[in-house]
């Protein structure tokens, strides 16, 4: 795929939805803060396939999370150690690539099953 045909992933919007700093987003994406800053300021797509896949998962978490919670509620969900995550936070899990566990917990909350 050429950059023009890549699906739109807006790092700034995703970062804002998840209430993350550029430093935290860069850590989750495993890129430099400078790369995130450049992508946001110049509206450039992140071309690395692995980085784009991680950003797409973060977008999925943000979208589902905002269907379940308010902005403040989502921030609390992401940053509070939870029993369902064995005392870790959703951010902790996302930092090690455990996106599906976070998505599963959000989906359970969305369905009213809660953990």
TrEMBL record:
Antitoxin Xre-like helix-turn-helix domain sequence ranges: 3-57
InterPro entries linked to this entry: Lambda_DNA-bd_dom_sf (IPR010982), Xre-like_HTH (IPR046847)
Domain of life: Bacteria
Family annotation (Gene3D superfamilies): lambda repressor-like DNA-binding domains (1.10.260.40)
Gene Ontology molecular function: DNA binding
Name of this protein: Transcriptional regulator
UniProt source species: Chamaesiphon polymorphus CCALA 037
